[in-house]
Design goal:
It is built from 13 helices and 20 strands. The chain is of the alpha+beta class. The protein has an eight-stranded antiparallel β-sheet. Strands 1, 2, 3, 4 and 5 form a five-stranded mixed β-sheet that branches. Helix 1 runs antiparallel to helix 2, helix 8 packs antiparallel against helix 10 and helix 10 runs antiparallel to helix 11.
Length: 408
């Protein structure tokens, strides 16, 4: 039987096709596309791929297929968009088990009816749960609730040889697959921790003039007893004529949230205001489809030094936005930047972080021709535990070959 015939037997002929010009993963051509309708069908596709030595790259809504290094080759693109739905909701345990292809929007709508939420406010509005977990994508609420790997109670994963597993002896599988970019296995479902839907939300927004001012005000908020749920900064660097701002989110019952927000505005001073709506940039990435995007992480107190290092290396202001209370941010560069200038900026940022307590700066997304000319993720190898797990689960590197896990 041909590849297309075997895939059609597994998923149904209407859900399998030979890839066309539009079927690529970050400009890397694909051989075939398969859209299984269940975890069992995912496992069947992987068993066939293992027997034939075919590479497989999983995809949800495809919102982040251009993040990180591109795969070296893609024989089968596994579209999980048919595997959807809330499989189990446990209100007493405050958990839900959800199919990986479920759009976060659909999950959010379901949970609102139960007065619950999954505290993942990511910047990819069309993303699926599986895609968010696979890339460990997080938004402002990470400040209080953590990244996806902190919210996952358990997972079901289809492994390289086609088995469906919920655990691997000696490893926290749920934690390791978050941020794995599909390199360890294909997430088919996940049990996630929920939180009550807050009755009241207030944002305290304050204009700022320099990265150093952002650091000073952020440190004051973190040291205070006010317990902000999120602290974000937007430093547009002159782009669009927008002013730089620092914003903090407070949640809870109306009396508590009001008191904390008003106290935070007094603490920040400088024209800080309290609003029931977030600033327009809140929870959004600073980069567009044609931009180069960097991800920076390190000690919160050292982000200011990285911003200045990037600006010095670029010779111009660099828009930066992110969770300054945690030391995680994204920077934006024009897609026309030269490889030499980009490489210099990555080196400058990594040098600052290395000498100031650790961290990293990775090339999150960029045009493929530009990315091939620079070192995208730095020299650090996988930690020993992650490397051993990769060797155990995918020794022949058929799953998302060439992709690099996000450990930040």
């Amino acid at each position: 039987m041909t590849v297309i015939e075997v895939l059609a037997d597994a998923c149904g002929p209407e859900h399998v096709w030979e890839a066309g010009p539009a079927d690529t993963v970050d400009e890397v051509p694909v051989g075939w596309v398969a859209a299984p309708g269940s975890a069992g069908e995912v496992a069947e596709v992987l068993r066939f791929a293992a027997a034939e030595g075919l590479s497989v790259v999983p995809s949800g809504a495809g919102t982040k297929l251009d993040w990180g290094p591109p795969p070296t080759h893609v024989d089968v693109l596994l579209d999980l968009g048919r595997i959807t739905g809330v499989l189990d909701y446990a209100p007493d345990a405050m958990t839900a088990t959800v199919a990986a292809g479920t759009p976060l929007r659909a999950l959010r709508a379901y949970l609102i009816r139960e007065n619950r939420r999954l505290p993942l406010d990511v910047g990819s509005p069309a993303a699926t749960l599986g895609g968010v977990l696979a890339t460990n994508e997080a938004g402002p609420l990470r400040h209080r609730f953590g990244a996806p790997r902190d919210l996952v109670v358990g997972v079901q994963v289809a492994l390289d040889e086609g088995s469906l597993e919920r655990g691997v002896h000696g490893y926290d599988l749920a934690r390791h697959v978050c941020g794995s970019y599909g390199t360890l296995g294909v997430i088919t479902e996940a049990t996630v921790r929920l939180e009550p839907l807050p009755p009241t939300r207030f944002w305290v927004i304050r204009p700022v003039s320099t990265p150093r001012e952002v650091r000073r005000l952020t440190e004051a908020l973190v040291a205070s007893p006010l317990e902000p749920v999120a602290i974000e900064a937007d430093l547009p660097g002159g782009a669009g004529g927008r002013p730089a701002e620092l914003a903090a989110l407070f949640e809870g019952d109306r009396a508590t949230a009001t008191q904390r927000a008003e106290s935070a505005a007094k603490l920040l001073g400088g024209g800080a205001t309290v609003d029931q709506l977030p600033p327009a940039w809140w929870g959004r990435y600073p980069f567009g489809v044609d931009d180069v995007a960097l991800k920076i992480w390190g000690r919160p107190s050292e982000l200011v030094a990285v911003v200045y290092a990037l600006r010095d290396a670029a010779g111009l202001p660099v828009p930066v936005r992110g969770s300054v209370g945690l030391g995680v941010a994204h920077a934006t560069l024009p897609g026309t930047i030269s490889p030499e200038r980009l490489d210099g900026m990555l080196t400058a940022a990594r040098t600052v972080l290395l000498t100031r307590g650790g961290g990293g700066c990775s090339l999150l997304r960029a045009p493929l021709d530009l990315r091939e000319l620079v070192e995208s993720d730095g020299p650090a190898p996988l930690p020993p535990t992650a490397a051993r797990l990769k060797l155990a689960l995918d020794p022949e590197e058929r799953l998302a070959p060439g992709r690099v896990p996000d450990l930040a």
